[in-house]
Design a protein that fits this description.
The complex is a heterodimer of chains A (116) and B (107). Chain A is an all-beta fold. Chain A is built from no helices and eleven strands. Helix content of chain B is 0%, strand content 50%. Chain B has no helices and eleven strands. Classes of the chains: A mainly beta (116), B mainly beta (107). The A-B interface holds A 35, 44-47, 50, 59-63, 95, 101-104, 106-109 and B 1, 34, 36, 38, 43-46, 49-50, 55, 87, 89, 91, 94-101.
């Protein structure tokens, strides 16, 4: 069974750093792109970027380029999304997704709350 | 970036109704379009890929059509569990983009 399991909810202060994770199982992790999608409270879905764990090829949305870093450790089938300095506007639910021409599997989401 | 515009943004309908949601791309995307359903507090769920292919396990009352710039998602006979928000997404070129969503509510 294909699964994407994300790390738990986080509460952080502005300026702090954060790295959230997404562990894939039940399929060949290095053979599919893994993407990240943001959903701010009460809002729609936003595509942030994507990584191919096989060779770490990464693409970013211009809206998120330079704001976040996407990475992966294929030895433990895990993708990451990280921030070096969080802002209150980063408060959102973040989903990881597996791409196979569409987003066929989604993680359960990681809620990130940034508040002073 | 390719913009996707969904219409309507919200829709009220009754159980048993036939409903159509439209997604228009700012430039041609061939058939590289997917549709998702999202219920409150849950991750989105894939319904349709490649514009018209039904994802495994999705009821046949859902169907998709279109190519190029104009796409539709149709629910042939609304069921109570279909009241949710629906999103389209294009896979033609990076950055991948989503429509703004269509909220389907009970009349």
């Amino acid at each position: 069974e294909v699964q994407l399991v994300q790390s738990g909810a986080e509460v952080k202060k502005p300026g702090e750093s954060l790295k959230i994770s997404c562990k894939g199982s039940g399929y060949s992790f290095t053979s599919y792109w893994i993407g990240w999608v943001r959903q701010m409270p009460g809002k729609g879905l936003e595509w942030m970027g994507i990584i191919y764990p096989g060779d770490s090829d990464t693409r970013y949305s211009p809206s998120f380029q330079g704001q976040v870093t996407i990475s992966a450790d294929k030895s433990i089938s895990t993708a990451y999304l990280q921030w070096s300095s969080l802002k209150a506007s980063d408060t959102a639910m973040y989903y990881c997704v597996r791409e196979s021409g569409s987003y066929d599997y989604w993680g359960q989401g990681t809620l990130v709350t940034v508040s002073s | 970036a390719i913009q996707l515009t969904q219409s309507p943004s919200s829709l009220s309908a009754s159980v048993g109704d036939r409903v159509t949601i439209t997604c228009r791309a700012s430039q041609g995307i061939s058939s590289a379009l997917a549709w998702y359903q999202q219920k409150p507090g849950k991750a989105p769920k894939l319904l349709i890929y490649d514009a018209s292919s039904l994802e495994s396990g999705v009821p046949s009352r859902f169907s998709g059509s279109g190519s190029g710039t104009d796409f539709t998602l149709t629910i042939s006979s609304l069921q109570p569990e279909d009241f949710a928000t629906y999103y389209c997404q294009q896979f033609n070129s990076y950055p991948l983009t989503f429509g703004q969503g269509t909220r389907l509510e009970i009349k």
